[in-house]
Amino acid sequence: xxxxxxxxxxxxxxxxxxxxxxxxxxxxxxxxxxxxxxxxxxxxxxxxxxxxxxxxxxxxxxxxxxxxxxxxxxxxxxxxxxxxxxxxxxxxxxxxxxxxxxxxxxxxxxxxxxxxxxxxxxxxxxxxxxxxxxxxxxxxxxxxxxxxxxxxxxxxxxxxxxxxxxxxxxxxxxxxxxxxxxxxxxxxxxxxxxxxxxxxxxxxxxxxxxxxxxxxxxxxxxxxxxxxxxxxxxxxxxxxxxxxxxxxxxxxxxxxxxxxxxxxxxxxxxxxxxxxxxxxxxxxxxxxxxxxxxxxxxxxxxxxxxxxxxxxxxxxxxxxxxxxxxxxxxxxxxxxxxxxxxxxxxxxxxxxxxxxxxxxxxxxxxxxxxxxxxxxxxxxxxxxxxxxxxxxxxxxxxxxxxxxxxxxxxxxxxxxxxxxxxxxxxxxxxxxxxxxxxxxxxxxxx
Length: 446
Known about the structure:
The chain is an alpha+beta fold and 446 residues long.
């Protein structure tokens, strides 16, 4: 030692410069650092400098002071001297030790997770692997991660974890191992104690989750197929029901109704032509004739309810108009009916569907709504028909609708669905009910 400032004297654990002049620095260097220190002095003399050398100084009381040394060789003639700039790195060393302790606690925590986790450098060498990794992929030894995980001799050119180094942002992706296990991978930017960039990768085995998803998709597909088959069956049943209703209605109208009307006419003729009957017999005959006429009217009405011939004869718009008129007369409720751009050539299944929805809606209104006014509109638009039914009744809470109202709405919705239409029913207590149906004129795939 040729010379030193007061700060260096303090760092070396001495009181005055005189105590260290002429002595070798190795005398206050910790024993475990002496050999390395001597080697670094030789290296410094050879290359002319040393940067970032860290050694520990020890004073007479055994107190250790970590020092960072940056040294330069100055040569004058045949004489060489080493000039060193020394810095106390106690606080940095303490921070690094604290960081290392936290890292060890983190690694201990990661060892307990059911996911493989490792830290790697940009050159693919591994800094740390957790227990789950070792149990499934073996001890990494000195092999790079792409060899251990992917059985490759070189890294994948498009490895998603490389983007972490490039962008500094986390990445998420999926990987299938050679054994067929599926992992969801999460890559996060990390840094070593010395600031070296690292990637922390966590892989969670989601094979069972994927299998469950696939089973669920298969079940959902089967359910949709079953639902579609049910819809088709329900559609066929409704179609068959409407056909049977139409047949019965025709028989009632063309046969039974006509026969009853003929009987009524015969009774009336018999009443006019028979002079031998008593007055009481004439009264009973008239009553019988009146009952036959009434029965004939009832049969005609039943025929109409089963299948309105007006729907076939005059079309949807007039059939709904007739239904509105009958409802108005029977219930004394004002019905405002509007029709716009409706062709006579409405497909039969669409016409029957909309007509039955109008019937069911009016039936619900008469039984449950307490309404004084109803507005119904049929509007043709863009290869579809929009039906809107609005009443000013007491409405209902959609979450607490009664079974009678609910059954009627479900029936209407089912009919709309079977022709590929859209159905909505909106209501609030005291604010009436609005039913809207958009029926396509050509069957949509549902």
